Amino acid sequence: MEEQQLQITKVAMIGVGSMGFGMSLLLGEQGFEVFFFDPSEANVRDLESKVRDLKLNDRVQSKDSYEALCQATKSPQAPRVLILSTPHGSTGDKIAKSLRPHLDPGDIIIDCANEHLSSTERRQRELEPEGDILSRLRRGDASILKKLMPFFGKLAAKDRSGRPCVMPIGPGGSGHYAKMIHNGIGQGMMPVLAEVWFMLSRGLDLSAQDIGDIFESWNKEGQLRDCFLVNIGADVVRTRDENGHSVLDSVRDIVVQ
Fold first, then answer.
1. Does the pLDDT of residue 196 top 90, yes or no?
2. Within this chain, do residues 41 and 115 fall inside the same structural domain, yes or no?
3. Are 30 and 128 in a shared domain?
4. How far apart are alpha carbons 197 and 39 in whole angstroms?
5. Cβ contacts of residue 192 below 8 Å, gap of 6+?
6. How large is the angle between the packed helices 18-29 and 41-53, nearest 10 degrees?
7. Where does the 6-phosphogluconate dehydrogenase C-terminal domain start and stop, copy by copy (predicted)?
8. Which neighbouring-strand residues pair with 167?
9. Please, what sign has the CA dihedral across residues 79, 98, 115, 253?
10. Residues 182 and 161 in one domain
């Protein structure tokens, strides 16, 4: 590939559960042609319904096989870009095996699953160029990452100066390592916030509005300033259903992903 930005216009999305669902819509809204595949008929139906609602039918389309997905995303201007948003573990291995017969050297797989870094690095080694084996986004290849940064920048959140919140992390499974730490922090903070809400609501008998005000004040100054989870926590505790009741009073006490 030449040392220039990749002219990416088509993206393959594999897995359209909660994360893949949102990414597919975001990519479509950003003007990319998105072709997606998911063995779950329910996931496909849900995304197709939302695509119709948003009138993105011309940009976001489903395919019924890996072969059809790869045919749809073939382009003379750029390598294929395939994004995985799938369960961690053996699923990624099965997908890689299914994709290999349909890909060309230089195609890029971006694994967005919650994968363990050792599995990521093993898969990268397996997909190294080897005869007719494919060239991949292996070990966070710096030159390929540099070409992909404008693409990532279009999808990333923006800071207060309008700069995309994205940067190269490092080689190997560095990205998944950073994601593991990020998820650990988030999953640790959420039950703490839930406990705080419980004490303020059930212990001190404060109203949802008062608790929201407290969360908002914490987000404005001190050690929790500009904390995303505290910020949205203020919005959540104030949210009411169509009958005017706090939604937190009717949330089922279970955790799913």
1. yes
2. yes
3. yes
4. 39
5. none
6. 30
7. 175-257
8. none
9. positive
10. no
pTM of the model: 0.77
The answer to whether 16 touches 38, Cβ cutoff 8 Å, is yes
Total structural domains in the chain? 2
Decide: helix, strand or coil at residue 118: helix
pLDDT in tens, 54-79: 999 999 999 999 999 999 999 888 88
Percent of the chain with pLDDT over 90: 50
Q: How far is CA 90 from the centre of its chain?
A: 19
Give 33's strand partners. 10
Whether the CB-CB separation of 234 and 219 falls below 8 Å is answered with yes
With cut-offs at 50, 70 and 90, classify the pLDDT of residue 141. low
**Per-residue pLDDT tens over the stretch 104-140:** 888 888 888 888 888 888 887 777 653 333 333 444 4
Does a structural domain hold residue 3?
Answer: no
Looking at 116, 144, 169, the residue that finishes a domain is: 169
The residue type at 239:
T
Mean pLDDT computed over every residue of the chain = 86
Segment (H or E) for 127: none
* Torsion on CA atoms 186, 188, 192, 195, rounded to nearest 10: 110
Report the C-alpha gap between 18 and 64 in whole angstroms. Answer: 19
Distance CA 28, CA 61 (A): 10
229 Cβ neighbours under 8 A, 6+ residues apart = 186, 189, 190, 193
pLDDT of 4:
64
* pLDDT: which is higher, 44 or 169: 44
CATH classification at residue 82: 3.40.50.720
